[in-house]
Specification:
Layout lengths: L2 H13 L3 E2 L13 E7 L7 E7 L6 E4 L6 H20 L5 E6 L4 E6 L5 E3 L2 H14 L13 H15 L8 E3 H6 L2 E2 L4 H4 L2 H9 L2 H7 L11 H13 L3 H27 L7 H21 L10 H25 L1 H10 L2 E10 L3 E2 L6 E2 L2 E6 L10 E4 L2 E13 L4 E8 L19 E5 L35
Parallel strand pairs: 2-7, 7-8
Antiparallel strand pairs: 1-9, 2-3, 3-4, 5-6, 10-13, 10-17, 11-12, 13-16, 14-15, 15-16
Helix pairs in contact: 2-4, 3-4, 7-8, 12-13
């Protein structure tokens, strides 16, 4: 927890109301999301009990498993779930757009739109991941066949759950995390995992949150007391109509809060870099649809050593990039970096925009500016800084000089000024301009080279087996 978030939590506790910890929305909110509230029996390993889902807040669709321990009923439930979820996911695989690659020398195509699925909390994401794992390898022929839609749904759920691990991705969103990214409450992080309590803190305050703690669960697991007192007798007596009504009553408050949360987040202005992250989601969606159409093989149960290392590398890069983008988009997030000395704000007091460096093989434009700041500066000469206002431009620290009123920092600029020996208008900060400079950078970070999977040493499992050998995975 950062210093400013801890302060916001203290203020929320004192005021009895959640405090905003962002000035913009750091999440893409879809125009037509699919809300999915899964429910499983407590004490049963991923035994689905019900699901409330749909794209219209006024028309929820409830699916119920009359006997969660019955294998046939569980797969019938999964087939019904697929009948709603898969067409929604497929509906965006239509119109495409050309995207320049290789510096404009070539193009690739991706879908103009992509889906977005909302679940109440991280437990909902885990439920979908386990459901995908248990269904994507099911056979559609032989002993115990299932409808073709069941393994297809399993692949889609596995894809969505994997995307949820990527920082900044918005293909599968859990409402608790989305709200917690923008508000801080006066309760613990564990209590924030209860959607009803978190939402009440934001809308009505602490007292309403305390009352919401005793309200309906947001899934995916039911309350054991509810199972013993209400659910067990209905399952035993096979009272399907009554069970359906009981579960609808249990899930509807969460359904309403989910749509209210989406509407609440829509009111925030979108961060400048949210769109680029959604472009990445559309790329991932387009690639997966292509995979389904061309190969259709399910994802392996376990990644090989090289694939796992590559995935970890991509996740680490995505996390670093996401942290930088949030800071560049949001002054409140950047304020935390200013507290730690990773960023400072100042005024340009000197500027030489036409300075040419001719010490190399050819002359290059290298303007210099001086920035005066009253904030603590924890950078050394030679360090490279970036301004969120000019992310393509690097500012090399030439000198750091303490003064009576603060610190003078001399910077040499490169990049983002055009290709001539005369800077493009507005590309060099002018005297009197207020600047924010930081060690954070959006620059591409090349990953480490990894060996070919066939060269995996025995210490890491050896070369991967053929994908078709499911039993060995």
């Amino acid at each position: 927890m950062s210093t400013l978030v801890a302060l916001a939590r203290a203020q929320a506790l004192a005021a009895g109301r959640a405090q905003p910890i962002a000035t913009v929305r750091h999440l893409h909110v879809h125009d037509r999301p699919l809300v999915l509230i899964p429910l499983a029996m407590a004490g049963e390993a991923n035994a689905p009990l019900a699901a409330l889902l749909g794209t219209d807040p006024n028309s929820p669709h409830l699916l119920v498993v009359g006997q969660p321990r019955n294998r046939d009923e569980r797969f019938a439930f999964t087939a019904d779930l697929a009948a709603t979820v898969v067409p929604y996911l497929d509906s965006f695989a239509g119109e495409t757009e050309a995207v320049p690659v290789d510096r404009g020398r070539d193009v690739r195509h991706r879908f103009v739109h992509a889906p977005q699925v909302w679940v109440p909390n991280p437990g909902g994401v885990d439920f979908l991941r386990l459901l995908g794992r248990s269904t994507r390898f099911r056979r559609t022929d032989g002993d115990y066949p299932v409808p073709a839609s069941v393994p297809l749904l399993g692949q889609w759920l596995t894809f969505l759950a994997s995307s949820a691990e990527v920082p900044g991705s918005a293909l599968l969103v859990n409402a608790v995390q989305a709200l917690g990214l923008h508000w801080a409450t006066g309760q613990s992080a564990a209590e924030d995992a209860h959607l009803g309590s978190l939402f009440a803190w934001i809308i009505d305050g602490a007292q309403a949150a305390r009352e919401a703690e005793d309200g309906p669960v947001a899934g995916p697991a039911t309350d054991p007391d509810f199972d013993n007192r209400v659910l067990a007798p209905l399952i035993t007596t096979n009272s399907s109509p009554q069970m359906t009504e009981v579960l609808r009553e249990l899930l509807m408050p969460t359904w309403d809060r989910m749509w209210q949360s989406i509407a609440l987040l829509r009111q925030w202005p979108e961060g400048a870099r949210v769109g680029s992250r959604w472009d990445g989601d559309r790329d991932a969606y387009s690639a997966f649809v292509t995979h389904l159409h061309e190969e259709g093989t399910p994802q392996p149960r376990h990644d090989g050593a090289v694939a796992a290392a590559g995935r970890l590398q991509r996740l680490e890069n995505a996390a670093a990039r996401y942290a930088v983008q949030r800071a560049f988009d949001d002054p409140l997030v950047m304020a935390e970096h200013r507290l730690t000395g990773a960023a400072f704000s100042g005024v340009v007091t000197l500027a030489k925009a036409d300075r040419i460096d001719d010490t190399g093989k050819r002359p290059v434009l290298r303007p210099r500016i001086m920035v005066a700041t009253t904030e603590t500066v924890r950078v050394e000469p030679g360090a490279s800084l970036t301004s969120p206002a000019r992310p393509a431009q690097k500012a090399k620290v030439i000198s750091v000089t303490p003064t009576v009123s603060g610190t003078d920092v001399v910077l040499e600029l490169s990049g983002g000024m055009g290709r001539k020996l005369v800077a493009e208008p507005g590309s060099v900060p002018e005297i009197g301009e207020q600047m924010l400079l930081t060690t954070l950078s959006e620059a591409y970070r090349p990953g480490a080279s990894l060996p070919d999977p066939s060269d995996t040493p025995w210490t890491h499992g050896g070369p991967p087996l053929h994908h078709g050998d499911v039993s060995a995975e």
